[in-house]
């Protein structure tokens, strides 16, 4: 693991710097949704001085660092692209990975011209699985087109959306799939060095990756042409934003960068850099082995292939699922999760704390980037948090803005100062101590407009879009809060 040399201005940014997770309880939204199932543990999470927002155990919430069980894992797709090894208990040794067919895609890709690999990814219609859904092939092409003495590949393993635990199990149970994918991406784009930036909240994944990287070097998968190393973060949701992540790798304060230039032109240390998240890259070996058209045949509309969904503990069957795009959200709730184990469904958050809440009447919406965007929500990282009717909607909104305020990097004034004000406003509404009226409504609208219009990254914009989606889908409650 690579130790980071950080500038002194960055040292105060990370809430887990120099701290262990021992005894910590999770303060994330999935645990918030399930707080009634273990009020003592939730109280511990709420009181602890150092907040921990997601331990990747949302299927057993409220969670803590000292207890874990293995979730239910299943594939509901015509072809299992991502979970074949995970659902069979994991493959953590290179020999076993190769025995199961792993490594063949690496050899096939290295025998191809780099441009042909790029064209293969383009033809597959693979889109980034981190939330924005940007076409991966376009990123690879832009990176490959750059002439530079050194290029970087950065694996974003720090997308810590509370409610999503898919990356955790890909990393812990199938590390060589990610390493193989990174080698293929490096060959295609000309990257000579790579980093996996991993969340500190996943210590088991760090240990697995360390062993896997050593094995890969011993087998000469990694070495002179391309090497890959793992860097452990110190706790920051904002480091999931790719420009903030690069600043973190450089030892600087992880604030977002202005764009242009794009990262494929001027990224890590000012050099061309390809940033992809774990799930996106892990699809690449399957695409190389089975063909672009086989991948594009999965899914629907403009969303091709499969998506991992993490279902939280309020479902009767929480766990990790691989589905094709196009599945109606009602089927996710009723067929995968088998409905809620208690209470009545108040809404479903799909894609993290900056995604909107889908109300029950809109569960006919099909899982797809444009389809979710059309209702003011998002696919995001695929965390599916069900909220029962024991959680008031105002409490959810207040919790989202509390999270947003704590995790703001501070660079944008509306995000830095506006999110705490919105958190306080909705906290007062939640507790019944706030005075609803035209003044509060006007202030809320002004703050949301400022967040949406002036935020440099998706954190502030996403918070505004989340609130607007709640306002759209729950107009009665919104009017009752703010007049």
How does this structure look, described?
By secondary structure, the protein is an alpha/beta fold. Helix content is 42%, strand content 12%. Strands 1-9-8-12-10-11 form a 6-stranded mixed β-sheet. It has a 4-stranded parallel β-sheet with strand order 4-3-2-5, with helices on both faces. Strand 6 (299-300) and strand 7 form a beta hairpin. Helix 5 (104-110) crosses helix 13, helix 17 runs antiparallel to helix 18 and helix 18 packs antiparallel against helix 19. The longest helix is centred in the C-terminal third of the chain and has 19 residues, at 413-431. The radius of gyration is 21 Å and the shape is globular.
Compact description:
With 483 residues, the chain is α/β, with parallel strands linked by helices.
- Judging from the principal axes of the Cα atoms, what is the shape? globular
Q: Mean pLDDT, as a whole number?
A: 93
Pairing-aware structural class of the strands and helices?
alpha/beta
Low-confidence stretches: none
Give the termini separation. Answer: 54 Å
Which strand order do you get reading across the main beta sheet? Answer: 1-9-8-12-10-11
Biggest sheet features: 6 strands, mixed
Helix content, binned percent: 40-55%
| Annotation field: number of helices | 21
Number of strands: 12
Radius of gyration (Å):
21 Å
Measured by DSSP, the beta-strand proportion falls in 5-15%
Topology:
Blueprint: H1 8-11, H2 29-33, H3 39-47, E1 72-76, H4 94-99, H5 104-110, H6 114-124, H7 136-144, E2 152-157, H8 166-173, H9 175-189, E3 193-198, H10 203-218, E4 227-232, H11 242-249, E5 273-277, H12 278-282, H13 284-290, H14 292-296, E6 299-300, E7 303-304, E8 306-311, E9 319-324, H15 329-336, E10 345-350, E11 357-358, H16 369-374, E12 383-388, H17 393-407, H18 413-431, H19 438-454, H20 458-473, H21 475-482
Parallel strand pairs: 1-9, 2-3, 2-5, 3-4, 8-12
Antiparallel strand pairs: 6-7, 8-9, 10-11, 10-12
Helix pairs in contact: 5-9, 5-13, 6-7, 6-9, 8-10, 17-18, 17-20, 18-19, 19-20, 20-21
